[in-house]
Structure formats: C-alpha cells, structure tokens
Amino acid sequence: MNNTILSIQGKHFMINGKKTYSEIPKSRPEAHGLLMNARFIQGVFDDQGDRSRYHRFGKKFDADSNTDALISALPQWYKYGLRAFTVGFQGGGPCFTIANSTIDNNPFGPDGSRLDPAYAKRMDRLIRAADELGMVVIVSYLYPGQVFRLQDTRAVLNAVRVASRFLKEGGYTNVIIEVCNEYNIAQPHPLIYTSEGMVALMEIARNESGGLPVGCSGTGGFLDEEVCRESDVILIHGNGLTRQGYYNAIRRVQSWAPDKPIVCNEDSQAIGNMSVAYRSGTSWGYYNNLTKQEPPCDWGITRGEDQFFANRMAEGIGIEVPDIPEEDRFYLQGLEPEMEYEGQRWIRLASLDPETIDYVDFYCNEEWVYTTYVEPFTVHFDTSWKQSAWKVRPDDREWKAIIYLKNGKVLERKENTYDSTIKP
User: Fold this and answer.
1) How many domains is the chain built from?
2) 0.90 exceeded by the pTM?
3) Per residue in 213-225, pLDDT tens?
4) Same domain, 84 and 167
5) How far is CA 15 from CA 2, 35, 359, in A?
C-alpha cells in the first residue's frame, strides 16, 4: 500500500512528489499536474432490492464480479493516461433504464451509522488496485438519487462521518473525497443541497478522514463561490455545456480560486470539451452513461466512444499510442447485438474528431429519422449526456449515418447486421 501518494501544490496534482505525467517521456509540459479521469461511478454498485433485473447486455450481474472487472480494466486505461476515476458509495444513475427510486444502493442504512461490509471490501479492493497502478480514486459519498434513503439530517452526518473514518482507517493516500455528486439537486436534506450545509459537510469529511482533499460537484454549469473557496479540489461538471459554456465556467471558477486545482469529474461523451480543459490547464472527466453507468458495466475501452476518448486523452498528454486509421474514426454506435434493452436502443455517431462535423443525418431502412447538429451526435438528442431511446421495430434492418463535415466532405457510415463500412 501507499505506492501512490497524492499531494497538491497550488493548482497542480503531484504523485509521489512529482507532477502527474511528468514521468512520461515526450509528454507535454502543459499537461503536467493534471488529473485526467473518468466517471466509473458504479464500481461498487449493488441493488439490495432486486439484482436479477441487471442480468442483461449479454451479462449476468454480480456485485463482486462488477468490481473485479473494473480492477482488471484499469491497466488498459492507465496506458492511455487515465490517472483518476470517480466511484460512488451510493452509485449514480442508471439514467436510461431503471428508476433510481426503485434501487436500493445505500450502504449506510437508514440512520447512516454503518457502512455495509460488502461495500467496504469492494471499495477497499478498488482503492488498493488503483494504488498499485499509480491512480487516484475520487470517492463519492452521496448521490441525490439515493439520499432519500437516509432518514434525516443526523443520518446524513453519520454517513459522512462513517465514510470518512473508513478512508482514514484504510490509510489510503490516493483518494480525493467528493462529499456529494451534484449536491444542488433538490432532495429531502437541506444540509446537502445548500452551500452552507455542504461547506459544513466538507469540513467534517476533511477532519474525519485525517485530512484527505475534499470537494463536491454540482450539476453541469452550476457553480457556487463559497463551495469553491472551501474546496481543496474544485469539482465541476460539464454536462450539457457547449465548449464555450464550459470554457466560461472554468474562467469563472478560476476567478474565485486561482490557485486551486479544477477537476471536471463528469461531462459526457462530448470529447471536444476535453480540448478546452487542456488549453485551460484543468482536468477533464469522461462520462459514458451507457457503457459505464448501466449495470452490468463494460469497464474496458470499448469500440467507438471509449476508444476515441482514450486516444484524444493520450494525444493531449503526449503519450504515444497506436493511431486510429481514417476509416475507423467514425463509428455508428448502439447497434451492437447485446445493447438492446426492452425493445430500445440508443443510437449515436461516435467520432474521434467531432469538432470536424457540421451535422449528421440518420436513416433507418433508407428512411430519414433524425438530424443532429451538436456533439455528441445522437438520435433523439436531449442534452450532451442523455438521449431518448429509439423504439426498435421488427423490420429494422439497416442504419446509416450521413456525416457532413465542415470542410465540405460527406461521409457515409452504415451498419447492416453489425458489419461496418465507411464510404467517402
């Protein structure tokens, strides 16, 4: 244990006394001190009410196997430059398929006084595996979709204390605390969703954990000056923001706390925002709520969105990884055989270079169904992190995306019985 000792020097992250990424030959100096990350929030997930409904996507769900699969995938992500990931005691989502109100993923009990030993063991395995690799775990305590299971204010206080004491007793040196994910979402406990209450909870977490760095996040674009100033690590979300909106949010936070590290630990598949993060000297968090938040999760670097994020992350750091051929830089995603759920699919056009796309027309059986102008390019776009489902029809045979690039070129991406082709 303690192979990975995280510290903070001004706005830079240090691992074992050196700026992150500085040990990598030919890495970009402007990336040194950043903490590129991903939202792996379901790393210790369980549903104590009904586990059987997660036997889907070609897999059977088991809480321990889910954690072990994430541990097995971490070296692959590390190679591309991922140095941190967020995992939550109360999880997060799912956003597309199963209502949070029906899920029992609260390891603290109604009164918040006890950490379920099974959750504790899974979290311990994850943190120790990350420590072996040189990675940081952003441990999120509370999630708005589960805090209703804490019966009152005292239960909230208990849960924060219990989680913090667990981290202190573990002796972990590679942890950042996120007291609550998107704390400003209205829920039963004012102690959580007010800035005054959150500042108090962060101080409790800091003290009870033995001084681990602490922060909390708000919804996409939500910023609070008092919370930012009292955070050791300023955690922000980019969900729903354009690149300009994301840049403006960073500028605002920097004006409040110019010498503190800023970490976006949840955005979307909109990897164009990552380039804004690199240019502004801040850290960015990839969030794929389909492959990485719908249990059972596929924790590896899957084809399409995951691979494109990994390559763009590596490029920004200066890590040499295999280049993706031109013909593989667009992928019509969501048509994989195992990704249908109760007659629904979530279809999108993933791209290594989304900034080059003007708009995308989608066709099913040669019939136009939708046009998307905004990254990520999804059918039935709601916001950057969410799309409405396509209701699968018995005669659905072939999907096609016509991709109109800003340079005037037009490309075609087609999926027919899961065989892919691309034509100029």
Assistant:
1) 2
2) yes
3) 999 999 999 999 9
4) yes
5) 11, 10, 41
